[in-house]
């Protein structure tokens, strides 16, 4: 997955504001600290996006298995009794 383009645009604008700021208290090291923090946050965001995709896939698989199990129960008995439990292998 790629980084969110609007975020990169905002980061460039923010970086330009920092470098063009007339205040002498903004140093190069604080700018580097900020870049490191942003980089770390981008990495965390990427990991979270990947985790969400994995969770979506796992949920879709579990729902598919549940649907298959219910179909098997319906096929075997003609109706799905309330007391019949389906065992999912997760």
Protein architecture, described:
The protein is mainly alpha-helical and 90 residues long. The protein has one domain (6-75). 72% of the residues lie in helices and 0% in strands. The relative contact order is 0.08.
List keywords for this structure.
rod-shaped; 90 residues; mainly alpha; 2 helices
Low-confidence stretches are: none
Tally of domains = 1
Largest sheet: none
- Radius of gyration of CA atoms, rounded to a whole number: 26 Å
Distance between the termini: 27 Å
Strand fraction band?
under 5%
Q: Strand-and-helix sequence, N→C?
A: HH
The mean pLDDT is 75
Coiled coil: 31-72
Keywords: Coiled coil
Give a topology summary.
Elements: H1 5-19, H2 28-77
What is this structure, in a nutshell?
The protein is mostly helical. It is 72% helix and 0% strand. The protein has one domain.
